[in-house]
Amino acid sequence: MPWAYLLECADRTYYAGSTVDLDARIWQHNHDDDLGAAYTRSRRPVVLVWSGGWFDRIDDAYAFEKQIQGWNRRKRQALINNEWHQLPALSRRSAVQRREAEADLPHPPAR
């Protein structure tokens, strides 16, 4: 079964991944110097904090992994806490904050 997952590393950062064998993959992250990801290898131990196994294909789990990798920490924490209703607001808030920041930028004088 394909899985997307989030690990919390020893340095409190998050690592997003996808796999077809969740238990084996977490073991690799914590113990295997050849198959574990380079990122987690230097941040052991890692702990599984979220997983989703509703994907039909590994490609779909991988696509969701890539989506999570683009999220900020607050949005990842909402996912971990099963606060699905917060996810759109956290995305919109970023866009609104960007627009507000751009509006505050000094504009060149009109000619």
TrEMBL record:
<dbReference type="InterPro" id="IPR000305">
    <property type="entry name" value="GIY-YIG_endonuc"/>
</dbReference>
<dbReference type="Pfam" id="PF01541">
    <property type="entry name" value="GIY-YIG"/>
</dbReference>
<keyword id="KW-0255">Endonuclease</keyword>
<comment type="similarity">
    <text>Belongs to the UPF0213 family.</text>
</comment>
<dbReference type="GO" id="GO:0004519">
    <property type="term" value="F:endonuclease activity"/>
</dbReference>
<keyword id="KW-0540">Nuclease</keyword>
<feature type="domain" description="GIY-YIG">
    <location>
        <begin position="1"/>
        <end position="82"/>
    </location>
</feature>
<dbReference type="InterPro" id="IPR050190">
    <property type="entry name" value="UPF0213_domain"/>
</dbReference>
<feature type="region of interest" description="Disordered">
    <location>
        <begin position="91"/>
        <end position="111"/>
    </location>
</feature>
<dbReference type="InterPro" id="IPR035901">
    <property type="entry name" value="GIY-YIG_endonuc_sf"/>
</dbReference>
<keyword id="KW-0378">Hydrolase</keyword>
<protein>
    <submittedName>
        <fullName>Putative endonuclease</fullName>
    </submittedName>
</protein>
